Amino acid sequence: MTQTLEISDDLKDRLDSHCEDGQSAEELIAELVSMYETEGAFLQEGYSE
Q1: Among positive and negative, which fits the CA dihedral 14, 41, 44, 20?
Q2: How open is the CA angle 4-12-16, to the nearest 5 degrees?
Q3: pTM higher than 0.85 for the full model?
Q4: 24: DSSP letter
Q5: 24 in Cβ contact with 11 (< 8 Å)
Q6: How far is Cα 48 from Cα 27, in angstroms, rounded to an integer?
Q7: C-alpha to C-alpha distance for 41 and 32, rounded to whole angstroms
Q8: In the prediction, which pLDDT does 21 show?
Q9: What's residue 38's pLDDT?
Q10: Is 38 strand, coil or helix?
Q11: CA 34, 39, 40, 46 torsion-angle sign
Q12: Whole-angstrom Cα distance, residue 31 to residue 36?
């Protein structure tokens, strides 16, 4: 079953700016969710606890 999410144009532009060549926003979101599920949190470069 496919779900549709409505996002603002600003958020869509932000997602698009992070996509690699040929990568869709959907693929980027799937990658981010997978990273979050695996690591428990998003890591930021230069960030440490």
Answers
A1: negative
A2: 120
A3: no
A4: -
A5: no
A6: 27
A7: 10
A8: 93
A9: 83
A10: helix
A11: negative
A12: 9
**Please, what are the averages of pLDDT over each run of 10 residues along the chain (49 residues)?**
93 95 93 84 57
Q: Backbone phi, then psi, for 2, in 5-degree steps?
A: -100, 135
Q: Give alpha helix (H) positions in 1-49.
A: 9-18, 25-39
Contacts of 29 (CB under 8 A, 6+ apart): 15
Stated length of the chain: 49
CA distances from 8 to 1, 12, 36 (A): 23, 6, 22
Give the span between the Cα atoms of 11 and 13, in whole angstroms: 5
| pLDDT for the residue numbered 2 | 87
